[in-house]
Specification:
CATH class of chain A: Mainly Alpha
CATH superfamily of chain A: Amino acid/polyamine transporter I
Number of domains of chain A: 1
Radius of gyration of chain C: 28 Å
Structural class of chain A: mainly alpha
Number of strands of chain A: 0
Chains: A mainly alpha, B alpha+beta, C alpha/beta
Distance between the termini of chain C: 90 Å
Low-confidence stretches of chain A: 253-259
Number of helices of chain A: 16
Shape of chain C: elongated
Order of helices and strands of chain A: HHHHHHHHHHHHHHHH
Shape of chain A: globular
Distance between the termini of chain A: 35 Å
Largest sheet of chain A: none
Strand content of chain A: under 5%
Number of helices of chain C: 15
Number of domains of chain C: 3
Largest interface: A-B, 37 and 28 residues
CATH topology of chain A: Amino acid/polyamine transporter I
Oligomer: heterotrimer
């Protein structure tokens, strides 16, 4: 089996943590809970680190099996397929949301209205090709681009940091507002769920959990830094800026001296967006393959493309509807996938541990 | 064979289609007749007289097969051969000695054919360092390698490929340093090659690649023995093909083409800088024209105003659209390049004058092409030669990225780039990741990747590709 | 056919890629560059004349030349709303407008009589006007100012955005961008400051305007920073003759309509005094002069081009002179507190000043500028002067309920609870500035 290393898994985690959080989310959350969105963010990240710990426990208990095999053992094949189907739906909409967020950015700042939503279809072959090439090739690609993406994000942050910013006021929203803000945007999270689906493909030597944890930490710190600097820079007008990472560069002093620096943000966001699409679609296809064990990834890719086009053309049509669909309806589904399922899986792994412990004692 | 020496010679002659370079001699002694057969074009007639014919003529004792081998023929390359090998030996330039009074055949090596002396290869000149290059003759090439590796573990395994050409293909490696799996795989692949003839090592290369239809080369090559030796010391296998000065090396990683032999003969800090520049050159070569086109067609908003003014002013009166303009200039440069390759060298200067001055300058003045377009395309074309080994691949990629940038803007370029990298990551011939040591990251091999550390820090065998167990100590 | 199907099966993604390229490439192949498709706008003017909006664009006109000099022209459109005006201007241009390179947005005073944010909102949201464009107001019309700027730039190389940016960095010590305006607009105090460029249009007395054409210091109150710049080309050449001042760049290609709109008769001057408009709720409430701005900047940690002139200072030989000091060093610390439920805003300011000039009033004075030490009397006079100026500006701000001093933010950050209960106790919370007690602890010292 073509597996990926701990470092590559860590980079996948890093990329998923940044997914959907560095463009629309800062301004969207600001509308509900102002600068205190940071606290909602910290709370969700803290919980998600527990989910990561669940994953490590599960991996330790079942080093070689995939999610379906693990769940089938404990709950039976049908229940396992139902759970994986939940993941499939989650990643279908997650990929669509990522497409929508990327589209907003491309339309507003890059192509200036000369870009139709269907132009995003041009990303299909690249994303599909990557998914079919497999996780190993994808992991290697991410590994190659990791530092480039990291430098790109840090560059945007540094440029923004050295321009006119002032520390924003915190504790301006009520706990209820903070909770509401976090709750409404929970669909943008669920960053470690991909790991559960690829559990059998991750080669984790003893002690390498730390590596993944460190990458997750880097991602979390970067997202928090983007939020804080963005709020520090724009403060009350934060809600007007829908493309946080790109908007960080807009007021740089260096602008006039060496030209428009937003090309750096542009390349970083495009690369990040593309990678995130690849990861989420790969997760979708992995769920698909685990549900329909006789079909290959290629079918998963084709099914995804058809579903995407049908859902877009028939149901959604506008990216704004997709975004509001995510905040209004998918939230409840995301609670199931982001919170309930990892906890359930963790409980199962504990039970397995107990059983093996009892067997040993017998 | 007895009483049939003349007949056998006639038979051989007819089998060689009465070739004009087919030569035969007959020596009659008391015991009987001795026949000599060789090809004049492949063997040295003087050597034949001095080392074979005259010694036999002046030999006082009894001429027997054993005496011929041990006492008479004063040549190191004397051996007995079976009848089925006679043709191959003759074709190799050896003299076949046979007689009616002894069984079997003796082959004497007096091969001599015109060969080139090793000189500095035009494709990879060095400022400092060895200037020898491989030649077309495989024996010389073996000598060039042997001279550099005085080790009993240096192995040359010869195989023959090509039903007509019977070209010699020699696998060369250091036993224990090269991976036995790779050697075995290569032997199998070469053994399975079914081809009429091998004219150059490229013919073999295509058979060794897992994806021969791929744009990207998956086998390394070099014209310099010092480069090949250093690769063999890292655990790679060299494949020498007779009649080709290009020696192939397996396994191959892309980073090899980023390295030049010059890097190893100068200060490593300087080498690191140069490699970084080479990398930038590669990126510029691939992306620059497409990126320029994307800026003009889709992203005028990220151009600084002064640059935008320059572009707007210079492209204002052009008859071409930006896309057609870049394609036109690209085509112009490519034609000039092809012409300069094929023209005799004394006409090269004239071509560059016509190309650079007349076509470029007058094209701009006539308002057919814009100066920024010419600069960007010329820059990309020149930058291409920072990595000359990848010249053909980059040229194709340039066209692809021009189309992507022109059709979809920067998004097209980014997606195209990710697509290419993803594809490269699927290439793992001989268990070697193509983009190692960066994807996957092989920490130990980063010492000699884009940044080069001192030669004193390089101790162990690389880990990016499979090697044997014995490395440098 | 079978081979083709096999190839498609083998490389389906390449096929999709090729299909997509086939769909997009032909369009791009014959599409002109965006610099040809769009009019690159460098500055925008927004005027309200009676009930009609007029939008003017200072656009760059590409011309095939090898000198790469910028040739601009002003094109305008009118309509009952900003969007209609933009469409009208686009009709005149025959191109879409591209606002990505816009560096300046000018509005006339009438635009500021009512909330300007809704008009700007359209430009920012729909036609992508960058938020970092410099935002200024002018007394005549934005269109006339743009025209004057155009010719000023052509003749003297002075750019409006540079002029305003200089003010923003050195005089106002604050950003005057659209973003800064919105920051103020959406802040709890709803107040912001934008630059003010006076434009003097003299269509009847062009000859009289000629002697003023050079960049010169002109007395405008006590200010030494006002500069008046003529934009007349004729003025440049000595002021003789005609008064046609509008840019003629690209005029041969201009439509009749554009010519009518684009031309302006008359000599005109741009007067940059460093003034600023105080806005509340997006409406103009007061015009602040450079002294007012200096007082506002007193609380800023950044140093502006402050100079303080005190009159009737007695010298060693007992004569009265005027002295001008330059603020060379400034240390500011601000504290907020509540005493008996009264908000207290305490600013400790240490100024390091240097005597720059002595106006001897035609007397023979022995005093040497370089050796003059700041005596207690001088320090006292300086403090008095600064406090008086601050009181003046504070009065203006209190009258207009506009907090551009950052008082709200300081209280909110340091004494949030008390401050919020204090605000809720007020009948008119927006008038909180009137209830805040200001304490300026000034210390003036010789710099160096």
């Amino acid at each position: 089996m073509k597996s990926i290393s701990a470092r590559q898994s860590g980079i996948i985690v890093f990329l998923t943590i940044l997914a959907n959080k560095i463009l629309v989310l800062p301004s969207a959350m600001y509308e509900k809970s102002k600068t205190d969105s940071i606290f909602a963010l910290i709370a969700i990240f803290a919980f998600e680190l527990l989910v990561l710990a669940c994953f490590f426990a599960l991996k330790k208990a079942y080093p070689e099996q995939n999610l379906k095999e693990i769940l089938s053992k404990k709950m039976g094949c049908v229940a396992a397929k139902v759970i994986i189907f939940a993941f499939l739906i989650f990643f279908l909409f997650k990929t669509m949301l990522t497409y929508a967020v990327l589209y907003v950015y491309l339309k507003d700042l890059v192509y200036q209205d000369e870009f139709g939503f269907l132009a995003l279809v041009c990303l299909f072959p690249v994303v599909n090709h990557a998914v079919v090439c497999g996780l190993r090739a994808m992991g290697r690609t991410f590994e190659l681009f990791y530092y480039i993406v990291l430098v790109g994000v840090l560059f945007c942050l540094c440029i923004a940091f050295f321009t006119n910013i002032s520390m924003p006021n915190f504790f301006v929203a009520s706990p209820l507002e903070i909770f509401h803000s976090g709750f409404r945007h929970i669909f943008a999270f669920g960053d470690y769920l991909v790991l559960f689906l690829f559990i059998d493909k991750i080669k984790l030597k003893k002690g390498e959990e730390k590596k993944i944890f460190l990458f997750a930490l880097v991602g979390i710190i970067l997202v928090l830094a983007i939020f804080i600097i963005f709020y520090a820079k724009y403060q009350v007008t934060a809600f007007m800026h829908n493309n946080a990472l790109a908007d960080l560069l807009v007021f740089s002093v260096q602008f006039n001296a060496i030209g428009r620096l937003d090309i750096i943000a542009m390349l970083t966001i495009m690369t990040l967006g593309l990678f995130q699409l690849e990861i989420f679609q790969a997760a979708f296809c992995e769920s698909f393959v685990q549900i329909f064990d006789k079909l290959s990834v290629k079918y998963g890719v084709i099914v995804f493309d058809i579903l995407f086009l049908v859902i877009y053309l028939v149901l959604i049509k506008k990216y704004e509807i997709m975004l509001s669909f995510a905040t209004d309806y998918l939230v409840y589904f995301a609670i199931l996938t982001n919170i309930v399922l990892p906890v359930l899986i963790y409980v199962l792994s504990r039970r397995h541990k107990k059983e093996t412990y009892d067997e040993k004692n017998d | 064979m007895e009483n049939n020496v003349e007949k056998y010679i006639e038979n051989l002659k007819s089998q060689f289609h009465q070739n004009s370079d087919f030569a035969s001699r007959l020596f009659v002694c008391q015991k009987g007749k001795i026949g000599f057969v060789f090809l004049k074009s492949m063997s040295d007639p003087i050597l034949f007289s001095q080392c074979i014919y005259l010694p036999i003529q002046s030999f006082d004792g009894q001429i027997t097969k054993q005496n011929l081998i041990d006492k008479i023929l004063k040549n190191s390359g004397v051996e007995t051969v079976q009848e089925e090998k006679v043709f191959a030996e003759i074709l190799d330039g050896k003299v076949i000695v046979f007689s009616d009074f002894f069984e079997g055949f003796i082959s004497v090596d007096i091969t001599k054919y015109p060969t080139r002396t090793p000189s500095e290869p035009p494709t990879s000149p060095v400022i400092q360092g060895p200037r020898e290059g491989f030649v077309e003759d495989f024996k010389t090439n073996i000598t060039l390698l042997r001279r550099r590796i005085h080790s009993k573990d240096l192995v040359f395994k010869m195989m023959t490929v090509g039903s007509h050409t019977k070209t010699k293909v020699i696998l060369s490696y250091i036993d224990g340093v090269a991976d036995s799996g790779v050697i075995k795989e290569l032997e199998e692949k070469i053994g399975k090659i079914k081809i009429n003839g091998v004219v150059d090592s490229y013919y073999i290369l295509s058979y060794l690649e897992k994806r021969p239809n791929s744009l990207f080369k998956q086998i390394g090559n070099s014209e310099k023995p010092d480069v090949v030796v250093s690769k063999m010391l890292e655990g790679k296998v060299a494949i020498i093909v007779d009649n080709s000065p290009i020696v192939l090396t397996v396994p191959f990683i892309l980073m090899e083409d980023m390295q030049s032999s010059n890097d190893y003969y100068t200060n490593h800090h300087y080498s690191s800088v140069v490699r970084f520049i080479r990398m930038c050159g590669l990126l510029i070569a691939i992306v620059a024209p497409g990126f320029y086109l994307a800026l003009q067609l889709f992203h005028y908003n990220i151009l600084p105003l002064n640059f935008l003014i320059t572009i707007a002013d210079t492209t204002q009166g052009l008859p071409f659209t930006p896309f057609l303009e870049i394609l036109f200039i690209f085509l112009l440069f490519q034609i000039l390049y092809e012409v300069s390759l094929r023209l005799p060298s004394y006409l090269g200067l004239a071509t560059s004058v016509v190309g650079a001055l007349i076509l470029g300058d007058t094209g701009v003045k006539a308002g057919l092409i814009s100066p920024p377009g010419v600069i960007i395309t010329a820059l990309a074309k020149i930058a291409l030669y920072t990595v000359p080994e990848q010249q053909s691949q980059i040229t194709v990629l340039q066209i692809v990225f021009i189309i992507l940038g022109g059709s979809l803007g920067v998004l097209g370029i980014v997606t195209g780039f990710v697509y290419v990298v993803n594809y490269l990551n699927t290439l793992d011939d001989y268990k070697t990741p193509y983009l190692a040591p960066y994807a996957p990251r092989v920490k130990e091999d980063l010492k000699d990747a884009l940044l080069k550390s001192s030669i004193t820090e390089k101790h162990s065998l690389p880990k990016s590709f499979p090697t044997g167990k014995r490395g440098a100590k | 056919m079978k081979k083709m199907i096999d190839a498609v099966k083998k490389y389906p993604f390449i096929l999709i890629l090729v299909l997509i390229l086939v769909a997009f490439t032909p369009y791009s192949l014959f599409s002109p560059g965006q610099s040809r498709k769009r009019a690159v706008v460098i500055a925008i003017g927004l005027d309200k004349i009676e009930d009609e909006y007029e939008i003017s664009f200072l656009t760059f006109i590409p011309s095939p030349n090898q000198e790469f000099q910028q040739a601009n022209s002003v094109v305008s459109g009118k309509g009952s709303s900003v969007s209609e005006a933009v469409l009208d201007a686009q009709l005149t241009l025959g191109k879409d407008i591209g606002l990505s390179h816009a560096k300046t947005t000018v509005v006339n005073e009438k635009m500021l009589e009512e909330d300007v944010s809704s008009s700007l909102d359209y430009l920012m949201r729909v036609v992508s006007l960058p938020e970092n464009t410099v935002f200024v107001c002018t007394n005549t019309t934005a269109k006339q100012l743009l025209m004057a700027t155009n010719s000023l730039e052509k003749n003297l190389g002075i750019k409006l955005d540079q002029l305003v940016s200089y003010n923003a960095n050195e005089v106002y010590i604050s950003d005057t961008s659209l973003e800064a305006f919105y920051k103020g607009y959406y802040s709890p105090t709803k107040s912001s400051l934008i630059g003010y460029i006076e434009h003097i249009k003299d269509s009847t007395q062009s000859e009289q305007a000629a002697p003023q054409n050079q960049s010169s210091s002109q007395g405008s109150g006590d200010s030494q920073k006002s500069s008046q710049t003529s934009s007349s080309q004729d003025g440049q050449q000595g002021g003789a003759g005609s008064s046609e001042q509008n840019s003629s760049a690209g005029s041969s290609g201009q439509s009749e309509n554009e010519k009518q709109r684009g031309s302006l008769q008359g000599q005109s001057q741009i007067l940059n005094k460093g003034d600023a408009v105080l806005l509340r709720d997006g409406q103009k409430v007061a015009l602040l002069d450079v002294d007012n701005l200096n007082s506002i900047n007193l609380l800023s940690t950044k140093r502006s081009l402050d100079s303080i002139t005190i009159t009737d200072v007695e010298t060693e030989d007992g004569k009265n002179v005027d002295m001008t000091f330059l603020v060379k060093n400034k240390v500011v610390s601000v504290k907020t507190d509540f005493q008996n439920n009264i908000p207290l805003f305490v600013a400790n300011i240490n100024l390091g000043v240097q005597l720059s000039e002595i106006d001897t009033k035609a007397q023979k004075v022995k005093q040497n500028v370089q050796n003059t030490q700041i005596t207690e009397e001088i320090a006292q006079k300086l403090e008095q002067k600064i406090k008086a100026e601050f009181a003046k500006v504070l009065q203006i701000l209190r009258e207009n309920k506009a907090d551009v001093l950052g008082v709200y933010d300081h209280f909110f950050a340091e004494n949030r609870k008390e401050f919020l209960s204090f605000l809720s106790s007020l009948d008119h919370p927006e008038d909180f500035l009137s209830h805040v007690v200001f304490m300026l602890n000034l210390k003036v010292e010789q710099d160096g």
